[in-house]
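User: These chains co-purify. Model them together.
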Amino acid sequence: MAEKWRTEKKRPTIKVLPWPAVPVPTVDEVYAGVDEKRKEYSLWVEAQVRQQFNADKPESLDGIRVLDMTTSQIIGHWCSSHFSELGAEVIMVEPTGGDPLRQWAPFGREEYKFAAANGEKCSPRFLAEARNKLSITLNVETKEGQALLKSIIPQVDILIENAPPGHYDKLGIGYRQLSEINPRLVYLWVGERGQWGPLKDQPGAMDPVGQCSMGFVHGTGAPVSFGGTPTRSGWWLADQVGGTFAAMGAMAALYARERFLGKGQFVEGTAAEGVVRIIDYNWGWYGMDGSVRPRYGNWDLAINIYAVNPCADGQIMVGGGHDRLWFRIWRTVGKDRPELEQHICEDPKLRVVTDRLPHYMQVETYTTMCDWTKDKTRAECEKALQEEEVASGGVSFLDEVCEFPHYKYRGHIEICDDVNYGKVLLGASSFIGSNTPGRIKWIGRTIGQDNEDVYRRLAGLDREKLAALRKGGVI
Amino acid sequence: MTAAVSKNLKDMTFEDFCRTVFDTTKRFEKPETLKGIRAVSTTQYILGPSCASYLAELGAETIKVELPKRGEPMRHTTPFNEPFLYPLSRWMPDKGTGLGFFGANPNEYFMSLDFHKPEAIQIMKRLAAKTDVFCENYRAGTFDRWGIGYRQHAQVNPRVVYQWMGGFGGWGPGRNRASYDILGQAQGGCFSITGWHKEYGGMPSKQTIWIMDYWGGAISAFNIIACLYWRDNVSNKGNFLEYSQVHGAQRHLTDLIALYGRTGIVAQRFGNWEPLLCVHGILKCGKSSYPNSKNPQEQEVGFCFVSAYKDEDFANLCKVIGKPDLAKKYPTHADRVGADAQSAIYPELDKWAADKTKEQVWEEFKKAGLVSQPVWNSKEVSSQEHFHLRGSLAWIDDPTFGDVQTQVLPCLMSETPPRVRWTFKPVGADNEYILAKLCGFSGSRIKELEEKEIT
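Assistant: Joint model of the two components:
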């Protein structure tokens, strides 16, 4: 079947239902049967943070201007999304043909791209992180381009770039030169392994370099004895984690500037080191006794039970290593398989939390657990476990994620009705708050759509100069 | 900076300039970004603690409040029940803290408090009145019921930035559901697109790290700093922030959500290859780099990533593996990136690498000027001078535990760099310091609280 699908020249057309295919639950449905006192707090939070009230609230970074000069990588765009969601004016500075990322659609399929009102096409990977950003074009390799950039730098708070190490410095628009023009500038370089040090990045290096170079790929996937290999994350995980830490650095620099420093600084954030920071205890463990963190498939080295277990229609996640949840999990299992509950709960070797952690104990608990899950569907497992308030949930595919009632009710998945790209379904900003929530205002611009606006506003260019720059291939 | 040094900085090579301004040995000579900001964190596991610890690494005085004696649950998790750092607390010197506690608690002050006692609630209120940031991850509404939630805080301290973090959020159909990191990964769709496809014998794979916890903490910390910025420069007002972990998980896949919304396509797993680009994947190298090692992990064959999606790079790659006809068959990226083409190209690369170690493969690719990176394990990463020189990995002389290798917040900053002063401390290590400093308690009062098991 799969072979036929691949070789088939004519692909079936898919009829896409308008989202949401299943209606969003209403407030009355959600709180049906809950007494007033218990409902009160939930309704209060809801009133504080509901996204439909966002437009009436201020934005915490209103008035901050960010130039995002990164291309071909998601780390910079991901980083600047943090600022644009919180209200900063983020201007994407693309090369004259547009960022190459605009062209990369899954499997090169044109039909997976989003067409703008003017017919220009853009890949979802780029578009999703172009939220609330303006787009201008600039060829920084030309003398005029560099002069133009320098002329707007005094009005910029944060500049983000990911050129090869030292490239902007050589062009005369690096931190050393720009900080002389604007000492309050926060200059952020982002990349995979760093712009200095023995492993300096090579040009064009992208996410998997970050994932491979710090132990993530080695540790993900099943062990060899389970038929597994090192596995990369299906999304650009390292770039996204590194981008968040880079944003934190730039935000901290901005805060320090206002609080006491009075000037900007040079900040650097990389994908590899971002994940180095969050890869649990790997470094402490190696430093302690030379242990190398192994791959452990869908189980967890440090918590038992904490895994996704195979079940009849996919995988079901069950978690709860500590006594309170541990016994509830087995009580759930025991409801229809009392012998399994008995087997685990009567085992003296499994009484204490830490005693459950050695490998052979994990094998015992998971084989017992799978004995229970294997004939049940995800929904059946989930329902049974949630009756006992155990953290559990099925492994969801993207359609199930988009139709998840909880997300829809809370506005985690939202439709952005954009002037350029029409209605686009998106993951909403994760900055939820009462006074200054993050939000999506528009989804993206076509290449250089804001040239006129930005260059007139920030560089004072007039019609003749703009035309000349356009003709000279500078913008 | 003196005039002579600043002139010098201008004439240096770029590499030397970076080494000078980011010099990790000078970190402690520079000011801290969040010096003078106080954060109170009553959090467990990873999501909440990591958020507070990022603030602590940036210089905030972060006070972590745990239950007395045994502390928070994460102290009792450690890989395979092997390594522990002793002691757990001065009351339990024969028990240790597991490595699960490791990455999420540096630089914090540790205080113990039993919230089930009314005196503890009084102490909590006094701390809350003096704090800039308050992080908690108890079940939504619990602190409110106890009289120490945002509504009560805001009355005495309207400038507080109150961050609630948890699984499904305090409202909506799933508000009562419990959550863990991998539930975020599962219900955010992250599992379903990681690992090999069924056709290749694979199943969804979890990301090895507790990513949704650590990343959720990072994004919350970013939001907190932004709110502090808004408070101090714009409004003089605090904020109530809610972070839901499952929400953060789907934020990572927003492009695939857009794709689903427009075309109905449900993205699938594609193993170690890349749907967007080709060649841009991880090759299996047939030989182990350490065939004589006693560690079975090191006897495994190696893996190496290579990227050659541009036409000239791909031609170059084909030359390296001795298959110039491949370059002729797939001359443009559009020819290569389809699933059929990828399934044809990668086996050829694997075949070429079958008699090589990952280092040999890396060498060959580097010689040809291709972007490449072997898959390193935690030992190989720990031995990289690169990460130690840049300070993202560091050996520190920890005040409690001695020599410890640890990770450091990876924002390299030239003027106000983050730093790690200690990895963590035993339960209740700073009770005396915090109670005397912030509540003005006398020594005998502090002892009394300890005897009544309130702290």
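The CA atoms of residues 51 and 221 of chain B lie 5 Å apart.
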